[in-house]
Amino acid sequence: MPDPTSEEDAAELLAAAQVSLNRHGEVLRALGRLFADNGHELYLVGGSVRDALLGRLGTDLDLTTDARPEQMQRFLRGWADALWDTGIEFGTIGVGKGADRLELTTFRADSYDQVSRNPEVRFGDSLDEDLVRRDFTVNAMAVRITPAGPAEFLDPLGGLAALRAGVLDTPSAPEVSFGDDPLRMLRAARFVSQLGFTVAARVRRALEEMAPALGRITAERVAHELDKLLLGADPVAGVDLMVQTGLGEVVLPEVGAMRMAIDEHHQHKDVYQHSLTVLRQAIDLEGPDGPDLVLRWAALLHDIGKPATRRHEPDGGVSFHHHEVVGAKMTRKRMRALKYSKQMVDDVSQLVYLHLRFHGYGDGRWTDSAVRRYVTDAGPLLTRLHKLVRADCTTRNKRRAARLQANYDDLEHRIDEIAAKEDLARVRPDLDGNEIMRILNIPAGPLVGRAWSHLKELRLDRGPLSHDEAVAELREWWNENGPPRV
């Protein structure tokens, strides 16, 4: 006998999906009419159906059809606001209509060589054939689109039941699916982060057995999935699935390696678990601006230098001297290998490098010069550095945690006080390069740069100087460091 509760749950999801789809009713009805008038079928598929059921459908819609790309181009050209053919070799036409962005793809029945992830593109003849080649059953549901709008819900592979259970399973055997496209394994971790799902037992076994196949995937595609994972609602769950199944060993080995290091406070199972806690706490500090990819990467990687710097001390303790320096180098190397932009590499590695600097602050014993240098070294990353340092406090000792937070409150207060008197956001020497050349009567060259650096150090140490003081300091430096007079 069917479970009435299950039927009620399914009905509620389908009703919620209808509400989501009604928001796109005008464009879907128009599309349904166009395709029907030209003798073709049209279905909403994939993540669009999944997200409609979850009540999170956006303006990007995925559809599939029996029409070939050149046929679609012909009858869509006069209707669409914009038309893109960048994916036409894979049977995909991009369409812009009002606020909606649509991807329409011809039924696919691809075959793979199990060596690369590039399929031999072959158009299919049926919806069922198209759905069975998709990555997960929750992405293998469809809604028929007619001139009247969304119509029949089609679920030949049990996607709705998997969605209700919060389980990721593959339409075909996972070994076949992941062998066709190993990137799907990383997408499993991404969906765990984004949707809060778990993976089916057979999928987990396949992930563990087939993880090395991720080596077939380009760095750019890996980085794209990692970013989506980290920007998800629960990136810790996604990262942990990667590490526990061996996927992380292929794409981000430095993170799993932290399981080997016990942290110096002995308050956590290992540095790996500490880093996951820091990631959670950094996310809690993000505020209304939403997910911060740079901050999340820095929180995950901030301690990756610890395994390489671990030392057992004579007193029985463990130290990780200069792990922030080593960690910044490791971060830079890994992110370059993943083909991140120079700005992204610089920002994340600089946060890793600076995350430990605050611990020299003690109980407010830094000079104003040290505070200026802290702000200057952080530059535009200062707000993120504040959040990273606060997130890095994971001690279970409430008194120590309160003292660390109070100390950082005090540091931020001192930064604000000095910033009220000086332009800390742009610490520059009190004389620019043109003035240096004029005062010393020298041409542009390395000496000007050395003089400029000297004046900047004075500015950091002593704060703003008057023009006369700056000139006097420059002449004194020149007398000691300039070229010998003839």
Automatic annotation (TrEMBL):
Name the UniProt key words of this record, in alphabetical order.
Answer: Magnesium, Metal-binding, Nucleotide-binding, Nucleotidyltransferase, Transferase, tRNA processing
Pfam families, alphabetically?
A: HD (PF01966), PolyA_pol (PF01743), PolyA_pol_RNAbd (PF12627)
GO BP field: tRNA processing
Q: What is its EC number?
A: 2.7.7.72
Transmembrane stretches in the record are: none
What positions does the domain HD occupy?
271-388
Which SMART domains does the UniProt entry name for this protein? HDc
InterPro entries, A to Z = Bact_CCA-adding_enz_type3_sf, HD/PDEase_dom, HD_domain, HDIG_dom, NT_sf, PolA_pol_head_dom, PolyA_RNA-bd, tRNA_adenylyltransferase
GO MF terms here are: CCA tRNA nucleotidyltransferase activity; metal ion binding; nucleotide binding; tRNA binding
Protein known as: CCA-adding enzyme
Q: Which species?
A: Mycolicibacterium vanbaalenii
Query: What gene name is listed for this protein?
Result: cca
